[in-house]
C-alpha cells in the first residue's frame, strides 16, 4: 500500500518512540523509510551591527545541526537497516518545520508522513502538537499520527 514513508523526528522522547513505531509499520508494509530532522534556520543577531565573538558563525551552526540531525535520525536508520528496509535520512533547515516536512514529503515522493503526538486533550492539546496539526492542514498526503497515551521516560 505504501512504498515510501517519511518518519519525522525532533530528538524528543516522544519522537524516538514514534520513530520505532514508524519503522515497525514500514516493515509491515515493506516500505522504504526516509527519516527527517528539521533544524531551525540560522539567525543573525539583530541587536548589534557586529556579530559577538561568542555567537556561532553560520558555518559552525550548520555543521552542528547536521551532526545533531545525524544523531537523531541515526536510530531510525539502524532500525530500518535491521528490518531489511531501504532507508535514507535528511536534515533540512526551515523556520517552519511543518511546511518543510510537507515540502520534503512532496520532493521525495513519500506516500505517507508518520508523525508523533503527545496524546493530550483539552488545553494540553492546544499547547502542544502544533507541528503535527500544521502538517495535517498543509498536505494532501496521508498522515499517520502515532499517539502516545503515556509520556515516555526521559
UniProtKB/TrEMBL annotation:
Pfam families: Usp. Residues 1-145 form the UspA domain. Belongs to the universal stress protein A family. This is Universal stress protein UspA. The lineage of its organism: Bacteria, Pseudomonadati, Pseudomonadota, Betaproteobacteria, Burkholderiales.
Amino acid at each position: 500500500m505504501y512504498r515510501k514513508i517519511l518518519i519525522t523526528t525532533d530528538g524528543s522522547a516522544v519522537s524516538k518512540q514514534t520513530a520505532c513505531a514508524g519503522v515497525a509499520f514500514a516493515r509491515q508494509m515493506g516500505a522504504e523509510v526516509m527519516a527527517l530532522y528539521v533544524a531551525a534556520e540560522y539567525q543573525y543577531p539583530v541587536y548589534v551591527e557586529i556579530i559577538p565573538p561568542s555567537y556561532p558563525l553560520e558555518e559552525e551552526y550548520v555543521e552542528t545541526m547536521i551532526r545533531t540531525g545525524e544523531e537523531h535520525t541515526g536510530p531510525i536508520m539502524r532500525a530500518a537497516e535491521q528490518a531489511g528496509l531501504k532507508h535514507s535520512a535528511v536534515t533540512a533547515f526551515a523556520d517552519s518545520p511543518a511546511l518543510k516536512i510537507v515540502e520534503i514529503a512532496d520532493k521525495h515522493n513519500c506516500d505517507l508522513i508518520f508523525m508523533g503526538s503527545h496524546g493530550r486533550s483539552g488545553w494540553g492539546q492546544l499547547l502542544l502538537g502544533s507541528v503535527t496539526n500544521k502538517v495535517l492542514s498543509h498536505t494532501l498526503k496521508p498522515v499517520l499520527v502515532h499517539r502516545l497515551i503515556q509520556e515516555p521516560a526521559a
